[in-house]
Every structure is written in structure tokens, then in C-alpha cells.
């Protein structure tokens, strides 16, 4: 079941299925490696509506919550 | 930003942010550059010369860019630089090959002779990553060489390769890319690029699973919602106390030998000036005669028959003591600590933690990096606002820096003069500036209905700072201060003394008295430091010393001086970055804030 990146549990992996949003935002996400087919792991969600931190391609990336809602992932079992 | 046409280069270094282009550039050209461990350190480009194969090459270090699609300033600048470049070195992070190859494909498509440098090959090895450079070179159709720019390994082979490189024959991969990778309108087909990159990586890279290193564990801990906050508070508190302690030690410390209390050796600039310089100057004073013009200019006025480095205000007394005796030690300690924060890679993590707070103020977390740089000197701070995405964000951050962020030189003087009254007074100065910073950003947030982009930023791995990197940056920043500031400081002392003799200040003080005395509760003579502050802030703060101010007046004076116009260099950069219209708007906000804060302090204190 696909769900927004932000809803992954801490430590859970997901494969990016789709990115909704404007061309500019898609571009900014892709250039940091957040592209369809890539596996991401949610590492942390910061307090008070702060960004979430994911690992993609062995790189840590901080993403604002609004953006993280627009990235759809397919959770990876295990 | 207005900029002349991009510089022509023989060799252009291109790569994504934080891949170590500036470190490689320094290795190749011997030109010192600011290199730090966070994306966006190089906001403009640097030019240097390299001697190789009996030729002189002009080498240009482009700002880091993720792609050549002209969606931001860095990409536009880089595209222009590529147009004027003879050959290209594409610097790639070996530990994140799949992230960096899309740019490599774009660069190869540009059709210039190109060599790919796989940087950080030492880190890749530690992480169990092996890249078959030969395979990658064969698949890409261009030379590929592993290097470690930090240690210099492989750099010689790279320079030899870039001298020998030819245009890629027939450009096989780009041709294929053009056929498959671009849609009919010429825009890049992203999924096709990622598919190609996936194949390239699959063929060239092998990863052996390895255990979590200490660094990686620290990386995860410092973004943890709870532990990370604790670490952030600890790092910030430790940094500020370290700056303070080291600065005070360099000014007035003593080196004691354990067990022998009588053998405490005075160390520090204060002792040096009072013990060594003062006696010489007293003899000079006697030789010149007290009421002569030269005495006034060189020594200034004697206080109780002796030299008071804070109050005498001659070229050789306060003119030397303020920059060398007070400001220099604080510059060393501030920039040492800042360099450590920069080179370890902690700053982006701090930005991530502050993001939610900063968003409530209408900024995003990354604005903290220019602001911290501004605490050293407003000039690089305002320039660093280029890493922020929208013009509005840049305007707000730069305006806040120029109004409410005192530079290290001014802070050194504030700590010395206000701090000697009481620590509480010092706290009021910093507290007021912090409140001003918050209030102005809140007001600007509600006035402007600008779309505020969310944070999206790569967090670099932790790295151990190198001695070479730290000392090189320290040298650039401190020598820059002496080159640029020292002549201005001494010039300001001369001008102040000349104006004193011409009674100009008497007339000016009478003119500005209504605002200064009635509204702000300052003596009318305080106009002098405020005006000198437009030139140099540290020397201006020193001018408060002889005025016999009450503690309340001194606090008000320090706050107003911090806010009232940036110094000359800051003003020039503010207008260059914001352009005329926004620069004037920024100054308007500043004047309104100064007026209100002066009255508020007079009423409240």
C-alpha cells in the first residue's frame, strides 16, 4: 500500500513510487537523489513540525514536511 | 547580483555542492579558497593559475551545481563558465556515485574535452565501496581517475590527464543520450537518465557490506529528535564559551607553571601593550611635548599622566591597541571555532534543528549559516545569503544580519567595554539585539506574503577537520582583516582627531542633540561614535570609552552602534547583493528600527 513518505515509521524503508507537485519541486527533489525507483529510509522526524530526515543512496537529506507529503512511497517489508 | 561575463578558463572544475572542488582547486593552483563541509560554501567562482606540461593554465572553480538546467543561479553561472571553458574536470563524490553521474552525463553532452575525477576515494574505500575506474571510463567514453583532494593523492595524475585529454571521440554516450534521454522539446527525460546511471553504477561499482562506523552512529544520533536537540544545545553553548574563553586568554591570560605560583608568566596582548609598548610611548610623549599637534595625533590625550590604550585615542595608542590588542585575539578564537563547526559538517545539522523555529520567523533553517558567518564579519555573511532560494529570503536574512548581527570586531570591543561594567549589562546588549532580530523578522513575515520554500538540503557526512584546512581558512580570514581593516582603523583615528581640532563635532552635536539626548537619553557627544560606526564599528565602540557614560547609556550606545548602518564594507556588499531598491528598503528598515529601539531602551532601562 502506497503512502506519503512522511508516514513511514522511523527506520522503515520505502521505494519512491511517485512525486506530485510542481516541476521546480520535482527537480529539487530529484537532484538530491529522491527520484522514482529509489529506496529511502526515514531516519527521524524533528519536533514542532520540523523537517524529516531520510537516507537515500547513503546520503542524509532533510526534507520539509509539506514536501515529504507529496512523495509517495511503497513500503518495503522487513 | 550584477556580474561581468563569465571568465574564460583553460580548465574548469565542475561538480555538485560539497564534493571538494575548492580543495582540489587549492591543490592544483596553490590559491587559498574557503572550503567547508557544507553545500554552498562557494557562492561565486574562483580563478587561479596552474603550471603543468610547460604550459600555464587558467583554472576556474565553479560554484557547486546539481544540474545544468537553468533553475538556479549556480546552474546559470556554471553553464556560462562551461561556454567559455577549454576543458572540464568533473569532480564526483566516489561515495555517492549514483547521485553525481546525472551531472556527469549532462557535462559530457556539452561536448568539451572532459576528465572525471572520482574524489574522496579514501572515504569510499573506508565504506567498502570499490569503483572500477577503467570500466566507468570505457562506458562513459572519457578518462576517469580516482583522487583524494584532501591528501593530494592522484592530483598529479589528474593534471597530466587534463593536459592530454581530447574532445570525447564522437561523443558516444551523449549521442545516445540525445537520442533517448531528451524529449522533443529538448528537456531532459529524468527517468531515462536515472535508468542509464543505474546501469553505469551497476557495472562499475561493488559495495562490501560494512559495519556502522563511529561517525555514522554520531550522524544518526545528531539528527535524532531528542538526542539531536541535546547535542545542538551543547554544541552551541560550548562554541560560545570556547570563543569567549580563548579570546580572553589571548588578551589577558597568564601561563602558570604547575606548583610554582610565583612563576606565572603574563601572556596576552594586554600585557604586551601595557608592559612593552606603553613605556616606549611615554618616552615619545615626553619628547613630543604634551600640547603639540603631533602628540594629539600619535599619542592622543594622556589619562592621569599615563597612557590609557582605550581612551587616549592616538594612532599609536588606541589606533594600534583596538585592532591588534582587542579585536585580533577575538578574531582568532571566533574563526577557529567557526572553522571547526564548518569543517566537521555540523552546521547543516544545526540548520535542520532550527528549521521549525526559523519557519515561524519567516525564514528557513539554512538562514542560520549566513547569520553565523555574519557574527564573524557581516560581509561574508551577507554574501552567503546567496545559498537561500528566493530573493525575499535573501533580503530578509541580509537585512537582519546588517541590523542585528554584530561582527566579531565590534563584539570584541563590546565585551571589553560593556563587559567590564557588568556581565548583566553585556547580557542586556546581546538580549536586545536578539529581540530586535526576532521582531524585525516577524514584522517582515507578516508584511510580505511571499511563498516560503521548505527546507530541502543534503546533510554531509561528519569529517575530521584537517590542520591544513583550518589554518588556511584562519590565515585567509585574519590576514584579510589586517589588510582591509587596519588602514581604515588608523585612517579613522586620524580623521576623528582632525575633526576634533576643527570643532566640527561641536556643531554637529548641537544639531543632532534633540534625538540623541531627549529621545535616546545619550549625551550629545555620542553622535561621534555613531557616525564613525558607518566607517568602522570597533574603533567607534572605542570612542564611547572616554565619554564617561552611565551603564544605561553604554548599553544603549552599544546596541545603537550595532544597528546604525553597517560599516562601509558591509554597506557596499549589502547594495551589491540586494541592488539599489532593496538596499534602500533595507536601510529604511534599519533607520526605523534604530529610532524605535533607542527610545525603547531609554524608557525601559
Overview of the molecule:
The complex is a heterodimer of chains A (about 80) and B (about 600). Chain A has about 80 residues and is of the alpha+beta class. Chain A contains two helices and six strands; from the N terminus they run ββαβββαβ. Chain A has a six-stranded antiparallel sheet. Chain A is globular, with a radius of gyration of 11 Å. Chain A starts with a strand and ends with a strand. Chain B is built from 25 helices and eleven strands. Chain B has helices at about 20-30, 75-85, 95-110, 120-125, 135-140, 155-165, 170-180, 190-205, 215-220, 225-250, 270-290, 295-300, 320-345, 345-360, 370-375, 380-385, 390-405, 410-415, 425-445, 465-500, 505-520, 525-530, 535-540, 550-565, 570-605; strands at about 10-15, 45-50, 55-60, 85-95, 115-120, 130, 145, 205, 255, 260-265, 455-460. In chain B, α24 packs antiparallel against α25. Residues about 170-185 of chain B have low confidence and may be disordered. The interface of A and B includes residues 45, 51, 60 and 63 of A.
Write the layout of secondary structure elements.
The complex is a heterodimer of chains A (78) and B (605).
Chain A: E1 3-4, E2 13-19, H1 23-31, E3 39-45, E4 52-56, E5 59-63, H2 65-69, E6 71-75
Antiparallel strand pairs in A: 1-6, 2-3, 2-6, 3-4, 4-5
Chain B: E1 9-15, H1 21-29, E2 46-52, E3 55-61, H2 73-83, E4 85-93, H3 97-109, E5 114-119, H4 121-126, E6 129-131, H5 133-140, E7 144-146, H6 155-164, H7 172-181, H8 190-204, E8 205-207, H9 214-221, H10 227-252, E9 254-257, E10 260-266, H11 269-288, H12 293-298, H13 318-344, H14 347-360, H15 368-376, H16 378-384, H17 391-404, H18 408-417, H19 423-447, E11 456-459, H20 467-501, H21 504-519, H22 527-532, H23 537-542, H24 551-563, H25 568-604
Parallel strand pairs in B: 1-3, 1-4, 4-5, 5-7
Antiparallel strand pairs in B: 2-3, 6-8, 9-10
Amino acid at each position: 500500500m502506497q503512502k506519503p513518505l512522511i508516514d513511514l515509521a522511523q527506520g522503515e524503508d520505502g521505494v519512491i513510487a511517485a512525486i506530485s507537485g510542481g516541476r521546480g519541486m520535482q527537480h529539487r527533489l530529484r537532484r538530491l537523489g529522491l527520484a522514482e525507483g529509489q529506496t529511502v529510509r526515514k531516519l527521524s522526524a524533528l519536533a514542532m513540525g520540523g523537517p524529516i530526515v531520510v537516507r537515500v543512496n547513503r546520503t542524509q537529506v532533510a526534507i520539509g514536511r509539506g514536501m515529504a507529503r507529496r512523495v509517495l512511497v511503497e513500503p518495503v517489508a522487513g | 547580483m550584477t556580474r561581468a561575463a563569465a571568465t574564460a578558463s583553460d580548465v574548469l572544475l565542475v561538480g555538485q555542492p560539497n564534493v571538494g572542488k575548492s580543495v582540489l582547486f587549492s591543490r592544483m593552483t596553490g590559491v587559498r579558497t574557503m572550503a567547508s563541509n557544507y553545500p554552498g560554501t562557494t557562492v561565486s567562482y574562483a580563478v587561479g593559475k596552474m603550471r603543468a606540461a610547460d604550459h600555464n593554465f587558467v583554472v576556474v572553480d565553479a560554484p557547486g551545481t546539481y544540474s545544468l538546467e537553468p533553475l538556479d543561479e549556480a546552474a546559470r553561472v556554471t553553464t556560462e563558465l562551461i561556454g567559455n571553458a577549454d576543458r572540464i574536470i568533473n569532480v564526483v563524490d566516489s561515495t555517492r556515485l549514483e547521485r553525481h553521474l546525472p551531472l556527469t552525463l549532462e557535462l559530457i553532452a556539452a561536448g568539451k574535452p572532459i576528465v572525471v575525477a572520482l574524489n574522496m576515494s579514501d572515504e569510499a574505500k573506508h565504506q567498502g565501496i570499490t569503483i572500477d575506474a577503467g570500466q566507468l571510463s570505457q562506458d562513459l567514453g572519457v578518462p576517469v581517475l580516482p583522487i583524494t583532494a584532501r591528501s593530494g593523492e592522484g592530483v598529479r595524475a589528474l593534471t597530466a590527464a587534463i593536459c592530454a585529454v581530447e574532445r570525447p571521440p564522437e561523443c558516444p554516450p551523449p549521442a545516445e543520450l540525445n537520442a533517448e534521454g531528451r524529449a522533443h522539446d529538448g528537456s531532459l527525460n529524468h527517468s531515462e537518465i536515472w535508468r542509464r546511471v543505474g546501469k553505469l553504477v551497476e557495472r562499475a561499482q561493488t559495495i562490501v557490506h560494512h559495519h556502522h562506523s563511529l561517525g555514522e552512529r554520531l550522524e544518526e544520533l545528531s539528527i535524532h529528535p531528542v538526542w539531536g536537540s541535546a547535542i545542538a544545545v551543547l554544541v552551541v553553548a560550548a562554541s560560545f564559551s570556547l570563543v569567549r574563553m580563548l579570546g580572553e586568554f589571548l588578551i589577558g591570560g597568564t601561563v602558570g607553571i604547575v606548583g610554582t605560583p610565583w612563576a606565572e608568566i603574563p601572556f596576552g596582548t594586554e600585557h604586551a601593550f601595557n608592559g612593552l609598548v606603553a613605556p616606549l610611548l611615554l618616552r615619545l610623549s615626553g619628547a613630543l611635548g604634551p600640547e603639540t599637534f603631533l602628540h594629539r595625533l600619535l599619542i592622543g590625550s594622556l589619562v592621569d599622566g599615563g597612557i590609557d590604550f582605550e581612551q587616549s585615542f592616538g594612532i599609536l595608542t588606541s589606533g594600534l591597541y583596538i585592532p591588534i590588542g582587542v579585536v585580533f585575539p577575538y578574531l582568532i578564537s571566533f574563526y577557529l571555532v567557526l572553522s571547526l563547526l564548518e569543517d566537521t559538517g555540523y552546521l547543516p545539522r544545526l540548520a535542520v534543528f532550527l528549521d521549525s523555529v526559523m519557519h515561524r520567523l519567516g525564514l528557513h533553517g539554512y538562514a542560520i549559516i549566513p547569520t553565523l558567518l555574519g557574527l564573524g564579519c557581516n560581509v561574508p555573511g551577507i554574501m552567503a545569503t546567496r545559498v537561500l532560494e528566493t530573493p525575499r529570503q535573501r533580503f530578509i536574512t541580509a537585512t537582519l544580519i546588517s541590523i542585528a548581527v554584530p561582527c566579531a570586531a565590534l563584539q570584541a570591543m563590546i565585551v571589553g567595554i560593556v563587559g567590564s561594567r557588568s556581565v548583566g549589562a553585556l547580557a542586556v546588549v546581546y538580549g536586545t539585539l536578539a529581540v530586535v532580530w526576532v521582531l524585525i523578522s516577524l514584522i517582515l513575515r507578516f508584511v510580505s506574503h511571499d511563498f516560503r520554500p521548505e527546507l530541502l538540503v543534503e546533510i554531509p557526512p561528519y569529517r575530521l577537520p584537517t590542520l591544513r584546512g583550518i589554518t588556511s581558512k584562519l590565515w585567509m580570514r585574519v590576514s584579510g582583516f589586517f589588510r582591509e581593516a587596519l588602514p581604515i582603523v588608523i585612517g579613522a583615528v586620524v580623521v576623528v582627531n582632525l575633526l576634533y581640532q576643527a570643532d566640527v563635532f561641536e556643531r554637529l552635536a548641537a544639531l543632532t542633540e534633540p534625538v540623541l539626548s531627549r529621545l535616546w537619553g545619550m549625551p550629545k557627544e555620542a553622535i561621534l561614535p555613531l557616525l564613525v560606526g558607518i566607517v568602522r564599528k570597533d574603533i567607534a565602540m572605542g570612542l564611547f570609552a572616554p565619554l564617561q557614560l552611565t551603564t544605561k547609556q553604554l548599553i544603549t550606545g552599544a546596541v545603537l552602534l550595532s544597528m546604525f548602518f553597517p560599516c562601509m564594507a558591509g554597506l557596499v556588499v549589502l547594495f551589491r547583493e540586494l541592488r539599489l531598491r532593496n538596499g534602500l528598503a533595507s536601510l529604511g528598515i534599519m533607520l526605523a528600527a534604530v529610532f524605535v529601539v533607542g527610545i525603547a531602551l531609554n524608557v525601559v532601562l
